[in-house]
Sequence to fold (127 residues):
Amino acid sequence: MPSVTFIKQELTIEVAKGSNLREVALDNKIDLYPLFGPDPFTGMPFPAKLLNCRGKGFCGTCRVKVNDHRALSPLSVREEKHVAWEGKSYRLACQTQVLEDVEVETNPRKVSGWMDHATYQKMKEIA
Ligand code: FES
Fold:
């Protein structure tokens, strides 16, 4: 059975292979959501703890950073939209299944700004 280590909470949990990372976190009272997250449509802050999409992959607020992306299921289409531009270590917990031992950082800081976003990079290429 793979284990999931939540770094900030200093908690390691053994889970069944294929377990959903969001469900593992919520079942163990891990606080996944920031108090305020960016609205997926406007980018303005909104209360993510209350108004997240409940695991549907639309809001992007369950974003986590992992030590080894190969220990998780392949990137989903919704993750491509929300977190792929930040690098392979960033995932949406609700779209991710645990396949092997992994370390998870909840509510990670953004490593880059909007100028590194793939959409902006494409705009620069066109211009
Ligand atoms: S809970 Fe909204 S994207 Fe995961």
Q: What stands out?
A: Helices lie at 21-27, 48-51, 77-82, 118-126. Residues 3-126 form a domain with the Ubiquitin-like (UB roll) fold (CATH 3.10.20.30). DSSP finds four helices and nine strands in the chain.
